[in-house]
Design goal:
Helices cover 20% and strands 38% of the residues. The chain is of the alpha+beta class and 448 residues long. Among the domains are: 66 residues, no CATH class; 109 residues, Elongation Factor Tu (Ef-tu), domain 3 (Beta Barrel), CATH 2.40.30. The longest helix has 27 residues.
């Protein structure tokens, strides 16, 4: 860098000088010139760099205080709103979701189910069917309602001793009476305390004979312990005292109980009941055999029973008995999707012009009509129900809503009879009006 040297001579003193260059002193002041040595004039040198020599701006703008703050704030706001304007211009959008007003549509018709078909026949109005069958052995347990009595008379033997002077003959059936306190439980009024000899017997004087006896009636009361007996037939004769009867063992076999018994009426009722039970169970088993995509026609269920064989005969003493039978069941099933094809066709033929079919709203039900015995087909009545809604003109709504505020747009849409509910979403979030550009307005139709 080239440096420029400038010599500067200090300015002269303000004192007056004479013609010879000598200072003129005040006449009243004493002269001190002789005493002062005049110093040499200093030489001052300035060294200037190129920066110092560079030209300066003539005017400098500087702001401070409140004015400077306001200017800066204005610049920031201008930039901020400029960015917002650019974002709004680029990204402005409106999504208008319209829930259309729906109405119910119903239709009905008849179709046939044919087990010979393999696919839907729209011309013949027929769908394919499949026969399902079940073969099984079935059994049922039943209770007997009849009553049977098991009665038996007590039996035993006694020793007859004749202490009389002559022989004594006792015919079969001779009564022997035991003390009443031997009967446990006590005898009832219609029961006698007698036992009878089984056979004729003759007892010689001073001798004894053992003979079998049987109770006069059935029941456990006659199973008496060893006892002494009297012979009522000898009352009033000398022999009554001299002929004695004694048992040495307890009598057994006496009984009188009621037990259940199978009657013919029980067997007949069991057959009818079993047939009804089988009908209901076979319907359930056939229903379980099909898939969720199929439906069974209840009126086509046919249950065939073989011979019902009970394990007892009438008169058998038993509380329960069992019936067994072989069962063959069959029914016709079809696919639900085939019904839907005809159901949708019925609905579409009944939807007015300018309306749209609501795919997810259809319900189809069928009911049995009859069986065509000649054609081997099952005739069904088909009922279909669905909803439709007016077709929305998106372009018309875009043009009508362009530039409108959200409130104005909703009011305009609700004036349309085909509109049930409206939702409007604007972007960016600060927008309150829909875009003027119709291409930036998205019209959506959504069913709730």
């Amino acid at each position: 860098m080239v440096k420029k040297v400038i010599d500067i001579i200090p300015p002269q003193s303000q004192e007056s000088e004479d013609s010879e260059g000598q200072p003129i002193l005040d006449q009243d002041q004493p002269s001190i010139a002789p005493y002062i040595e005049t110093p040499a004039k200093p030489k001052i040198t300035f060294v200037a760099s190129a920066e110092n020599l560079a030209p300066k701006n003539k005017r400098s703008w500087k702001f401070g205080g409140a004015t400077g703050f306001l200017i800066k704030l204005a610049l920031i706001l201008a930039v901020f709103f400029g960015i917002l304007f650019a974002i709004d211009a680029r990204y402005q959008r409106a999504i208008v979701t319209i829930n259309p007003q729906t109405q119910s549509v119903k239709a009905s018709g008849q179709i046939s189910v044919d087990t010979k078909l393999s696919a839907v026949d729209m011309v013949k109005q027929s769908i394919p069917g499949v026969a399902v069958t079940i073969d099984k052995d079935f059994s049922g347990d039943f209770k007997a309602t009849g009553k049977a009595s098991t009665q038996a008379k007590a039996k035993g033997s006694v020793k007859i001793t004749n202490n009389f002077a002559t022989a004594q003959r006792l015919i079969a059936g001779t009564r022997l009476q035991a003390p009443t306190d031997k009967f446990q439980p006590a005898l009832t009024k219609d029961q006698s305390p007698w036992f009878r000899t089984v056979s004729d017997v003759t007892v010689q004087p001073k001798a004894s004979v053992t003979v079998n006896v049987v109770a006069d009636g059935p029941g456990v009361q006659y199973n008496i312990a060893p006892s002494a007996f009297s012979i009522p037939g000898l009352v009033g004769t000398p022999q009554y005292t001299y002929i004695t009867v004694q048992s040495s063992d307890k009598f057994t076999g006496g009984t009188d109980t009621a037990v259940a018994q199978v009657t013919q009426d029980d067997l007949d009722k069991a057959k009818n009941s079993l047939a009804s039970i089988i009908q209901d169970q076979m319907k359930n088993e056939l229903q379980q055999k099909i898939t969720a995509a199929q439906f069974l026609i209840p009126d086509t269920i046919v249950v065939t029973l073989g011979d019902i064989m009970p394990n007892v005969v009438a008169g058998t003493a038993s509380e329960t008995f069992t019936d067994k039978v072989k069962v063959h069941a069959t029914a016709v099933v079809a696919n639900k999707s085939d019904l839907d094809i005809f159901g949708k066709n019925l609905i579409l033929n009944n939807i007015p012009a300018g309306s749209v079919y609501n795919e997810g709203s259809m319900k189809v039900s069928e009911s049995y009509v009859k069986i065509d015995s000649i054609g081997g087909q099952v005739i069904l009545s088909l009922n279909a129900e669905a909803t439709d809604y007016p077709k929305l003109d998106a372009r018309k709504f875009q043009e009508a809503l362009a530039g409108k505020s959200a409130g104005e747009a909703k009011a305009l849409l609700f004036n349309d009879p085909g509109v049930k509910a409206v939702e409007i979403k604007l972007t960016p979030f600060w927008r309150t009006n829909l875009p003027n550009d119709t291409e930036r307005i998205n019209i959506q139709s959504v069913l709730n």
